[in-house]
C-alpha cells in the first residue's frame, strides 16, 4: 500500500475481526485480528481538558514528520542498546489517575509504565507517523495509548512474506453460498483501527510484533494528542539480565513527580 493509501480492512472491536471495506476487493471477507484492546470514553471530557491544559503549560519540542513531543522517560540509545536514568524524574503527576484507571482493564494486569510520550499532531504541520514497530529490546509487550482532542485512525500494515486466510461474511441474493476460504499475501492487507476521542487502545501480541502501526496525514483533521505509555521488556523485569536497572527506573517513573526530559 502506498503511504497514506486506503486501508482495505476495518477492525471491529465487538468481534475482534478485520472486515473487508465495502469499496475494496475484500468486501464480504474477514479474518481474526488479535492483539487489540479498545476502550471508548476511558476518561471524561473534564479530565481530558484538565490533562491537555497541564501539558500545554510545558514546552512541546519539535519532533519528526510535523509532530511535537513531550517525553517522560530514561535516556536511551537504541542503536547501542544503552540505557540510564539521565534527567528522568518520573511520569507527570496527572498520569497517576490515568494509570490507576488502567487496572480496570483485564488486558493491563500488572502493567507498570516506565515511560510516557505525549505526541501533538495538527493538520497545519502535516503531522503523521510512518509505519513502524516500537522497539522491543527495551519496551515490553503492551503499548498503551490514550487518544485526546480528536478522533483518528491507526493504520496497521504487515511486511512479512506470509499470507492471511480470509473467510466469507456475505451471502449472495439472500442465499447462503458456502465459499472456500481465500488466501491473500499479508502485504496486500491493511487494517484501519478507528480511535474515537478519549479512547484507550492497547496493542499486544501480533498487533505489536507482526503488524506495523502508522497514522497518516489525512487522518489528522484537528489537533490530536496521543499519550503513549510503555512497560519494560523481560530483560529489564524481574528475573531479567538488567532487573536492577529496571527496578530503579520504575521507582523513578511511579513517583509521578516528573517534568518532560
| Total number of strands | 18
Strand content: 25-35%
User: Biggest sheet, strands in spatial order?
Assistant: 10-17-12-15-1-2-3-13-14
Low-confidence stretches: none
The H-and-E topology, N to C, reads as EEEEHEEEEHEEEEEEEEHEEH
* Helical stretch tally: 4
Mean pLDDT: 94
Helix and strand content put the structural class at: mainly beta
Distance between the termini: 36 Å
Which radius of gyration do the C-alpha atoms yield?
20 Å
- Specify the helix fraction band: 10-25%
For the biggest sheet, the summary is: 9 strands, mixed
Shape: globular
Written overview of the protein:
It is built from four helices and 18 strands. The strands form three sheets. Strands 10-17-12-15-1-2-3-13-14 form a nine-stranded mixed β-sheet. A seven-stranded antiparallel β-sheet has the order 4-16-11-18-9-6-5. The protein is 13% helix and 34% strand. With 261 residues, it is mainly beta.
Question: Which keywords apply here?
Answer:
mainly beta, 261 residues, globular, single chain, 18 strands, seven-stranded antiparallel sheet, 34% strand, nine-stranded mixed sheet
Give the topology, please:
Blueprint: E1 9-12, E2 17-20, E3 29-32, E4 36-39, H1 45-56, E5 61-62, E6 68-72, E7 75-77, E8 82-84, H2 95-102, E9 115-121, E10 129-132, E11 139-148, E12 152-157, E13 163-168, E14 182-185, E15 190-195, E16 199-203, H3 206-209, E17 212-215, E18 224-232, H4 243-253
Parallel strand pairs: 1-15
Antiparallel strand pairs: 1-2, 2-3, 3-13, 4-16, 5-6, 6-9, 7-8, 9-18, 10-17, 11-16, 11-18, 12-15, 12-17, 13-14
